[in-house]
């Protein structure tokens, strides 16, 4: 998955598990950037009576590096508190919830937003902002869309914020991909699948029917760039490096009624580019990667330069990726992937585009904020000729799995080495899914991710 | 009394505080060597300076060398105090 349960330790700590990070220049407000960090993945909508909520003991952060040194220049922090209205009931709600102030809603969450600058100075942006409830069903949350919209709030410093449940917009065929790398549209070409399947299959979106918790922020570009002036696309400073983290205090002492937390916050989850820790980093190093800042990622560059998946594709699909196999066998370092994931794409590779942040190797989601939103977005992003999409930031509908598969398969290596001819399959490989396979759909405006699925109508997700 | 100065504020680890907060016994009087301080960044509402009501948790890393970590608020204070480490170990039945 993008980063759902991507490492052994964080898979056991879902409240702190970052699953997706999105960053894009806002289509309907191009003077702003929208940042969305998703946590607590794979929520079954009907999972009551203790539904899903943010961790009170977790520090959630979205970091922005605007000068390419791998250090956060702007960090937005989110801390959550929970209030129980009626301590005599086991129920989440005792009647319809028609407003965020509803007395029928027994377990409310609120959060604070703090901005920390590069020197560590913290400024409170908002306190006690309400989260919406989860989407329970037509009797408990009869007009959920309206209810959730009440939780979209303006920040005094400029910008808009929302924290609460959304439908998971990530689409991927987990059942196939983790069954020895099967891609259903090519299952009959698979080394083992060819013995079972005699024709191509259709992709299945495993995450259809699951919700997540989203922290969404839309802030003026002037708040996050190094300077409040406008930038040209090829100027240093036009590109932001973005990542999200979750941290817990170092010590927890458990008591029967309330636990004691003490000590500094230590990072337990990190996410920049989708699939980085999931697919690039070996399992033995995934937990460590989650504790490190992006500026330490040079130590993982070898796994980007020679990704395991690139060596597996020619084995799993014999005769389909011969040119890739030659590249792998020659031990050629994948300069294309090193650029895409660790430094950004320099100018001169793609006409009218760059999103480099310099030479420091750091896994950050790089967004060139001087590239305007696309009028007709292509879900394949830069690979599809749309430089406003992944890996230039990431929009909610971008097909990051297919883009990543094609890049690893060699489709982007020819950008670096004009003598390399990608295999025909490198430009065609897919999981067979598009954003249209997300049944909850997406919103056209903030917070962009679709209305969460309700438990009553989705009881068996 | 063992005293540590973490730089951003003075923290006194008295016998009484230790007994109250960490439920330890037999904290000896000794001069502590502060070998390092890990100070948290500012964490908005989640922070705490540990001066008053914040619980204190002590981790004895190595009894022989007296290496201790004191966790309070959002800080970790490294302390070197052989007597204190020995007393805590005795209280824990380790000696």
Walkthrough of the structure:
Chain A has 461 residues and is α+β, with helices and mostly antiparallel strands. Chain A contains eleven helices and twelve strands. In chain A, strands 3, 4, 5, 6, 10, 11 and 12 form a seven-stranded antiparallel β-sheet that branches. In chain A, helix 7 (308-316) crosses helix 8 (322-329). Chain B has one domain. Chain B is built from two helices and six strands; from the N terminus they run ββαββββα. Chain B has a four-stranded antiparallel β-sheet with strand order 3-6-5-4. The longest helix of chain B has 10 residues, at 82-91. The radius of gyration of chain B is 13 Å and the shape is globular.
The end-to-end distance of chain B, rounded to whole angstroms, is: 22 Å
**Net shape of chain A:** globular
What is the number of beta strands of chain B? Answer: 6
Rounded to an integer in angstroms, the radius of gyration calculated over CA atoms of chain A is 22 Å
| Coarse shape of chain B | globular
User: Could you say which structural class the secondary elements and strand pairing of chain B correspond to?
Assistant: alpha+beta
Parts with pLDDT < 50 across at least 5 consecutive residues of chain A: none
Count of separate DSSP helical elements of chain B: 2
Helix and strand content put the structural class of chain A at: alpha+beta
Quick gist of this model?
Chain A has eleven helices and twelve strands. By secondary structure, chain A is α+β, with helices and mostly antiparallel strands.
